Amino acid sequence: MNKFNREVSVEILVGLFMFIVLIALGIFTIVLSRNKLFNESYQYDFVFTEVSGLREGDAVYLRGMNVGRVKQTQLENRRVHVYVTLDLELSLRHGYRIDVVDASMLGGKYLKVYEGPEDAQELGDNVTILGSKPVDMIEEMAAAVNGLQEMIDAVAAGEGTLGKLLRDDAMYNNMVEISDDIKTLVTKLEQGEGTIGKLLNDDTVYDDAAAVMANLRSVSDRIASGEGTLGKLLTEDASVYDNVDATMVAVREITERINAGEGTIGKLVSDAKLYEEATLLVEDIRAAVDDLREASPITSFGSVMFGAF
What we know:
7-stranded mixed β-sheet
């Protein structure tokens, strides 16, 4: 009887242990799969032309956060329908993107959701959500390697500038000649030949420039201190400015009086009669001078004749 009781107790203990193990496995399964049993979930259907190896259970990311899982993938009418379960409701707007992204270089995929610009209009109801065609990283790397290989082959064949540099001796000789010319030019500059060479080696040019700058500074200091006419004009002493202003006022008054015909100069400028009389006077003087020139030989001859007696 005791033996039977012990066997029953062992069986109960084993059963209880197995029950605890099953419960623990269930909890670990829920935790590892990140499924939330009692939270509300949202179902979406994304349509792709291809999914590049996306599988059930792959993660769905929104703004860098894991928000759900791929529940099922199904091929229908040459399109791949990806059914996902999300923890929150999407607010898709015009300009949205659903991308299949490589998880790492070692493999694996996940969905990346971009809801669209903040100021864009939201999508209406019963709209088919289209996913973007995935980019295969391996294919891109293969294309890049092929392009690099084509470039290397072209250079090896002597095509392009780099290829000619590697295979064309004439271009190499030209570069050597240019290098020699540059070396000769640098040597001449170091020896002080030419204008640039003198600027680089002759201290007198520097001394002259320093003297010119010193003179300019001296002139500037004198002007700033109010010396000379220009300095006095630029100083804060208002007497010079007042004198200049008074002179300009007087000149303006004289000009206005001349324009009004006042005074001798004003009458000469404004009165046409005086102009005509002045013109006639000049003509009379010119005629008198001409008469004197014509009578000068006769006068000279008469003075000689009568001077003899």
